[in-house]
Every structure is written in C-alpha cells, then in structure tokens.
Amino acid sequence: MSRNGLYSLVAVLALAVIGFAIYTYQQQQSQPGLEVRIDQQGVSIDGNG
Fold it and tell me: Which regions span the lipid bilayer (predicted)?
C-alpha cells in the first residue's frame, strides 16, 4: 500500500470516528431528561422534556 493510500485510510477512519461522536452527542441531547421519584414525601417529577 502506498503512503497516499495509507493517509487516505487514516483520514476516512478519523472522519468515521468524528461522525459517530457527533451522532452520539446529538442523540443524547435530544432525549428528554425525566426523573420520577416516589418517597415518604410523595411523588416528585423533575425534567426538562
């Protein structure tokens, strides 16, 4: 494999990792955070969704 081919392979792999990281971050941000607690004081609901 020539150096240009190796550089191309490394660049494609780096772009794939960056793309996956961005996708994962966006998926986590789009999920509404909702927390429901039931204890001695009753029912408590906290969330941003």
Answer: 6-25
Mean pLDDT score of the chain, rounded to an integer? 88
* 37-33-49 Cα angle (round to 5): 105
Distance between alpha carbon 47 and the CA centroid of its chain, in Å? 19
Domain ranges of the chain: 3-47
Q: Do residues 35 and 49 touch, judged by C-beta distance below 8 A?
A: no
What is the per-residue pLDDT for 49?
Answer: 56
- List pLDDT tens digits, range 12-32: 999 999 999 999 999 888 777
Q: How far apart are CA 12 and CA 40, in angstroms?
A: 55
Counting every residue, how long is the chain? 49
